[in-house]
Amino acid sequence: MDDIDRQMLALLAEDARMSLKTLSAKVGLSSPSTSERLRRLEESGVIQGYTLNVNLPALGYAFQSLVRVKPLPGMLKKVEQMIVETPEAIECDKVTGEDCFIVRLVAHSLEQLDQILDRLAERAQSNTSIVKTTPVKRRLPPL
Fold it and tell me: pTM score, two decimals?
């Protein structure tokens, strides 16, 4: 991966819908050369897909929360499956330490958040923090 590849990744991270023509102009290559570089980045697994960012409050999700989840003994796989099957769980990391999972949940209301957490409570302990703001949104690390 060279500086042009890094520049292409940075540009696409800002706008994944950027046209090939625009991307080519910004990196100073022809469209076929840019297309070939994109294909190589995709085939090598550097680019794993293109995503859509949505405004969660515009969809009615008033709350986001980060939930640390510690399954009760013998419940690790069941809790993991519960999280996977919870559509309001928009992100989950399996982590080391006292907790096993950190889950990002969205909810329309505090009552909905309580209902989700109540289902987990049968098989896990949890600690919930409501997200006030997100000063650093998911971004690329230094390339």
Answer: 0.84
Question: Could you give the CA distance from residue 95 to residue 131 in angstroms, rounded to a whole number?
Answer: 19
User: For residue 15, which amino acid is it?
Assistant: D
Instruction: State how far the alpha carbon of 57 is from the alpha carbons of 26, 33, 114, in Å.
Output: 33, 40, 18
Query: What number of other Cβ atoms are within 10 A of residue 85's Cβ?
Result: 9
Give the separation between CA 92 and CA 83, rounded to whole angstroms: 8
pLDDT of 125-140, one tens digit each?
999 999 999 999 888 9
Q: What is the pLDDT of residues 78-128, one digit of tens each?
A: 999 999 999 999 999 999 999 999 999 999 999 999 999 999 999 999 999
Instruction: Please give the Cα distance from 64 to 108 (Å, whole number).
Output: 9
Residue whose entry in the numeric block shows the structure tokens 């008033």 = 62
Angle between helices 20-27 and 31-43 (to 10 degrees): 100
- Please name the amino acid found at residue 89: A
Q: Write out the two tokens for 78.
A: 């069941």
